[in-house]
UniProtKB/TrEMBL annotation:
It comes from the Bacteria. Its main location: cytoplasm. This is Polyribonucleotide nucleotidyltransferase. It comes from Eubacterium album. SUPFAM superfamilies: Eukaryotic type KH-domain (KH-domain type I), Nucleic acid-binding proteins, Polynucleotide phosphorylase/guanosine pentaphosphate synthase (PNPase/GPSI), domain 3, Ribonuclease PH domain 2-like, Ribosomal protein S5 domain 2-like. Signal peptide: none annotated. Keywords: Cytoplasm, Magnesium, Metal-binding, Nucleotidyltransferase, RNA-binding, Transferase. PANTHER family: POLYRIBONUCLEOTIDE NUCLEOTIDYLTRANSFERASE, POLYRIBONUCLEOTIDE NUCLEOTIDYLTRANSFERASE 1, MITOCHONDRIAL.
Amino acid sequence: MYKSFSIEIGGKTLTVDVGRVAAQANGAALMHYGDTTVLSTATASEKPREGIDFFPLSVEFEEKMYAVGKIPGGFNKREGKASENSVLTSRVIDRPMRPLFPKDYRNDVTLNNLVLSVDPQCRPEIVAMLGSAIATCISDIPFDGPCAMTQVGLVDGEFIINPSQSQWKEGDLQLTVASTSKKVIMIEAGANIIPEAKMIEAIYMAHDVNQKIIEFINKIVAEVGKPKHEYESFTIPEELFAAIKEIVPPAEMEEAVFTDVKQVREENISKIRERLEEAFAENEEWLAVLGEALYQYQKKTVRKMILKDHKRPDGRALDQIRPLAAEVDIIPRVHGSAMFTRGQTQICNICTLAPLSESQKIDGLDENETVKRYMHHYNFPSYSVGETKPSRGPGRREIGHGALAEKALVPVLPSEEEFPYAIRTVSETFESNGSTSMASTCSSCMSLMAAGVPIKAMVAGISCGLVTGDTDDDYVLLTDIQGLEDFFGDMDFKVTGTTEGITAIQMDIKIHGLTREIVEGAIQRTREARLFIMDNCMKPAIAEPRKEVGAYAPKIVQIHIDPAKIGDVVGQKGKTINAIIEETGVKIDITDDGAVSVCGVDKEQIDKAIEYIQIITTDFEEGMILEGTVVSIKEFGAFIEFAPGKEGMVHISKISKERVEHVEDYLTLGDHVKCKCLGKDKMGRISFSIKDAQ
């Protein structure tokens, strides 16, 4: 039965239609927020997937170009591979919702969000986030909801709930917060160096809005929600755990995991597994779940060590950072390079500079084509964790990590006017054991400085972990978590920033929410850690940006010309500008407002190209001295080219102080001569003199 529900959020009406479309999905909600329309569905398979030990959840955010009245670019003229924005939006939906499904649920679940129309005042991303939560809550899929999500912007010092596209892009804050009825369960933020206290204020403003949305969702569920279906549980038999502990006592397991070398720990666990497989060789049922049982045993051991004994697997104090190292210029000939090492996590970042014309153009669900001038890419090869598998290009994790490090550094980049370059940094993961995205932030910052990019401030990042007990006040925060603490812990709270404030946050949890005390404690802990990293590791390697770009980087000089003169520089069918490029070897970009960027490696050739452009765009005035090349000889004089497409005529009487009978006696094609502008003659033509310039 079709029913419609409405609520006002951020001054705009959200309407949810249930029972109108997609009736065969387990749950479906047709979402309207302003004129933005998104169909959100939740669908589960009837039976669990065999042979897996994880919950198979997939989240999709489908951008359809018809939603903004566009036809897709490219040859096929249809949507293809998911855009970066689509991937990042899917991740933001996945992260808070995944922990709310049963841990032993093995049925495939797909949360699909189809963007049907976009109102620039109402971002489709937030509509999809709420739609996924509502579709899942009203479905028969087991889910410990409801949950809700709210976005917060900051424009002119004022917080804005669910800002418009332009407010989101141009404001000082891009914050997304997800909550249950009691706690915060996910935080994602990009910020223009926001103080910690103001960030916490924004987080809990969003949390309060989420409580109103949760009440709204509860009303929908009460009217149209389906009973949750029964499912086949995949819990580990207690008899198996007891048998494992008989063979491998807790003290032995503690000794196996208590090491700061990942390879040693993995070897220890491998030997234990071999013993258990031999012991249970006759019990196929136990062997089938032995891997998961051993994982759970390790997890309980590590959590008990941390929570009760305050002992970390590598012996560090709870707030201690692993050994740090940093260096720059490790790669020759590239424009900038830096390597950052924290324990067994090592990232090498390479910076490349290029003309602004090489900025990335993005065809997405925005009113206008979006251009990215700064691009950060992150690669995670299998060798970084001692594994082997073929490279298939960046997956969702790589895209997400790259976007986080990019978001961390955008607020400190110089403006295009200050530094007219497109910038790409690439983080290559050489070794991984926890928080490679935060190491990428540190190495990228140093790489930018080494390349001569005049960033406004140094940026560092660190992750804070968490292990919780049975009550809200029974918990331990861990600074700089390694892989094991991430796998077995409850939280990965990543924060980047300068000495003055936060530039990015990404918070993932595996439990049903965080108290405010934990959130504030984690933010404070990460601030202390990033300041330590900057002072004790990054600054000794490179304290400030280099004054100039490197020898192998392109040099870019930007000048401004009268927009009305752009056609003179370009010439008919590009003849003039191409002649300048061919002669000097530079690259020239001109914008509609008259900004001209000249790019090249040879400074002399850049100066020559700029001189040509200035000559072309400058009106001849009496008394002006110019140098040019003889390009044509006539009986009455010669034509001199001062720059491609810019010529002047020297009358035969103005060639020499002596009488000239034949122009050829004094001038030859290709001669380089100096001329003086005589102004306009009686016919109104500009004339030049060689003899008056000598």
